[in-house]
Design brief:
Elements lengths: L1 H13 L11 E8 L2 E9 L9 E9 L3 E16 L2 E14 L3 E17 L2 E13 L5 H5 E11 L2 E8 L4 E8 L1
């Protein structure tokens, strides 16, 4: 139990903002600082290997083309930590960015549900992956990370994220 608290506190300390570990059906538009708009689509897949939920997240960036696809597998959907729920999952991601950069990562992610704030609910999320995508230095190219917060209101969500590609990313999502 102490290890779970330690992991949760690290995620909370890192979490400036990220997509949750659990799959969601969503459609969103956002902006990634400094200069990229983006379109995102998330889907819960209709199969559950070994009873685990699975999902797919797609992201397209413009005006400079960038595409990423991430598959998710939810391993532990509802761990109770301090009266809140935490989800732990695995992901695999493929990325393409013009002109001709291609790579991918495998990693883990976790989400920690925030206490309800009136009509708002939310989740802090963190993910870390290992793989390769050219980003300048070799060390930066080997790791991917994503830290974030997602706030939910009815069928809408605001997503605030920092990751290995963006200093800051904000998006508005519609969930169904």
């Amino acid at each position: 139990m102490k290890r779970l608290w330690f992991i949760a506190l690290i995620a909370l300390g890192w979490a400036l903002a990220s997509a949750p570990a659990y799959p969601e059906n969503s459609f969103g538009l956002g902006y990634a600082y400094p200069t990229a708009g983006e379109l995102t689509v998330g889907a819960v897949l209709p199969f559950a290997p070994l009873g685990m939920d699975s999902g797919l997240d797609l992201e397209v960036r413009y005006p400079r083309l960038g595409v990423s696809a991430a598959g998710k597998l939810l391993l532990l959907p509802s761990l109770a930590v301090g009266g809140q729920f935490m989800a732990v999952g695995l992901y695999g991601e493929l990325r393409y960015a013009s002109p001709g950069s291609f790579g991918g990562y495998l990693g883990g992610d976790l989400s920690w549900d925030l206490p309800a704030m009136g009509p708002l609910s939310g989740a802090l999320s963190a993910g870390l992956g290992l793989g390769y995508f050219p980003k300048g230095s070799l060390l930066a190219s080997l790791f991917s990370y994503e830290l974030g917060v997602r706030l939910y209101y009815d069928q809408f969500a605001v997503d605030l994220v920092t990751n290995d590609r963006d200093l800051f990313r904000a998006g508005l999502l519609y969930l169904w």
